[in-house]
Design brief:
The chain has 119 residues and is mainly β. It has one domain: SOR catalytic domain (Immunoglobulin-like, Sandwich), CATH 2.60.40. Helices cover 14% and strands 46% of the residues. It is elongated and about 40 Å long. The N terminus is likely disordered.
């Protein structure tokens, strides 16, 4: 019985730790000339102007930020949602990028998506 209570408590704390955090759940990249276009799907329990997903960014393997998309309003009734960013310059030789999202209360989310660039 004691182990069941401890397991339930751990499960509850884990759920609380990630509740309300933003997550990148899908992304696509397409090369257009020397630049890239990213279509990124974000999931977040937007509550309104005080707590919403407000950005996402594309990061190289060395931590360089190649591009960032600012989200200018909450998406309370549109979850998950997809937004695009074009004109992202990525150096030749980079094969994989990370995409992470930001929310106005928690900052950069823990769920980062690794995306292999199509060649």
């Amino acid at each position: 019985m004691k182990s069941l209570v401890i397991a339930a408590l751990i499960c509850s704390l884990t759920t609380l730790a990630v509740a309300g955090e933003v997550a990148v759940i899908d992304a696509k990249a397409e090369r257009s000339g020397a630049a890239w276009r990213f279509d990124v799907t974000v999931n977040h329990a937007d509550e309104g102007w005080d707590h919403y997903a407000d950005a996402w960014r594309v990061i190289g393997p060395d931590g360089t930020v190649y591009g960032e998309r600012t989200l200018l309003h909450p998406h309370v009734d549109e979850q998950p949602f997809t937004r695009s960013l074009s004109g992202v310059a990525i150096p030749d030789g980079v094969e994989t990028v990370l995409i992470e999202a930001h929310d106005s209360r928690h900052g950069w989310g823990a769920k980062v998506l690794e995306l292999r660039l199509p060649r």
